[in-house]
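cache lookup: miss for this entity combination. No prior model stored, computing from scratch. Input as submitted by user K.M.:
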Amino acid sequence: MIKLEERKASIKPIKSKLKISILDDQEISQINQNTRTVLEEIGVVFPSDKALKIFAEVGANVDFEKQTVKIAADLLDKYLATSPRNYTMAGARPDLDVHVGDGKGTYFYCSGESPRVVDFSTGERRLSVKEDIANHARIADYLPIISLMWPSASASDKGETSPLHGLEACFTNSEKHVESESVMDEVSARYAVEMAIAVSGSEEKLRERPVLSQLLCCIQPLAQDRGGIEAAMIFAEYGIPVGFMSMPTLGLTAPPYPAGALTIAMAETLSGIMLTQIINPGVGNYISVNPGIVDPRTGAYFMGSAVAQMTNVSGVQMAHSNGIPILACHSFGGSQYELGNWQAGYENLYSHLLGVMAGADMSFGPSGMYEAVSLLDHPRILFDREMLRVIDEITDGVDVNPKTLAFDMIKEMGHKGGYISHRETGKFYRTTWPKESILYDDGKPEGRKWRDPKDVAREAITWILENHKPEPMSESVKQELRQIVDRADKDDSIKREISGHK
Amino acid sequence: MSEEMYKKLAQAVIDGEADDAEALARQALDQGLDPLACITNGLTKGIQQVGELFASGEYYLPELIISADTMKVAMDILEPALAGGQEREVVGRVVIGTVEGDLHEIGKTLVGTMLSANGFQVTDIGVDKTAAEFIEAVKENNATIVGASALLTTTMLQQKKIIEALDEAGLKNQVKVMVGGAPVTQSYADQIGADGYAEDAISAVDIAYRLADAPA
């Protein structure tokens, strides 16, 4: 069982002693060169006059009619140079700050934006509502393996302003850094910034320690979303980190080859990063590459194939070679993930193991999702966490030193005798045996027998929901957030913005 | 003074400090303390607490075994000093071993240790032991329970031979037989006439309590 006790939120990255490189220097260089040639000769579509003008002003080759931006390599590199390799994504307290690129390992997200949930009380599948986001935020706040969070579901009870309600639910139910990936229009972005300023205390404090970040999905191949990119420009203006995610589907929205798909992904993300750096040099960025494939028999979309995972992890080297941090790996629940489905289990395990070993700055982590990230089930977050617990152990590698070589112990025990009775063995198991696991239940002897981890996980989630109270936010800030979201609810321009770019 | 010594003996067992336990046992005899009281109020109290710590998940097997070994070190000093007719109180007297042709030790040792930690007097006769050797140990130790372990489908048949041998030796009414090991099942245990079957060391304690007619 995991330790269930009243405690404050904390965060814990996973640092890997084991390292892998998928691409060699020459291969990285070839993909980078190819990316720059694509940007220079083919360009990326930015369907926003505001963005096009900004590109034109700095000397990019802009076709206003086709809304296409072509970027020379030296111009791109000039602006990438200001994108920081290290920066902070702040929590409510400094000890919850994620210092991206600090070398302390991979920080994990609780991501999501699932449209449906499994109701925790009744077990029925239904559309997600704001309360589900609040509950999941409290669970994520409790688990140290989670350092950053998205609203984990859509607030389907809140209409067009669902993303802002999601942010409110996260800010008021967790002290950890909050990121939005669904604020996709300029008007909503301004409200989100207002909320972040309210949480931080002032615009200046927000710039210093941004408590909010944004992830923007690019449109494949080689295009950006109008609302999304205009929201990104607002966030960048206020010093709010902006990540760009490319989701090339091999053979559908990108070439079928990983190298070609990586080229597409880098062109999309780097062009977006350049725009935010023109607006606010030094604002934090990151890249995320999430490739998929299609089932060639049915056209069904798959996140969890081996080739897609390999492409994904190669993105770590590609991002780092451009001096940009990366958010790697698919979300847990990205494949046809059902509990007890061994295929989904191994896909999730090796994807995250490779991501950590490749040195990803951040990774999608325990989320509680399944069915291709479309269904949130609170207890499942503990199964995702369980895999990271194993990955944490594996990536510690093997310690070789006089103590672990254990010559004295071997000599003492001789040719017979059980090492189980050795004092050193006792110490070893005390530190090594996974106490914090839903797979191995403690308690009375009869309770130590195998129990279905689903039951154990459910018990743990029940306890967390009943007992974990994140450090309370001040009433005045809560009220301020409420008023901002309330104003947004009455603001018809959000509806117009959203429908305008659909 | 004696209360203080009992506490120290108990603590040595809880901490698994064999050297301390040995020194304390000698000290107790030098001071003229009653060895039976030292066992009952010191060592046994300590091992009972170890059993509770293990049951609650606080202690793991290594600590349990280290504590049981520690107790044995002190017992080896105190027991010979018991006055004639004095006998320490035990839940039951167990003879445990792995059957003939089978060299697997771990399961049998764990069960023996668990039983020791739960107040049974355990005589571990080792591995690859014939039915005759089991019978001899039962007689020698006036055992009330026999534990026969087998890990192989080929050697599990020896468990039946031990039961038959006990019957032939007229000991069947004196002792209860527990069997265990990977291939053994409850139905096999029933079929060969065993009195108890346990699938692991923890449930073996419950079964042994039941067989000893003591409260679990």
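stored under new cache key. The two ends of chain A are 47 Å apart (CA to CA).
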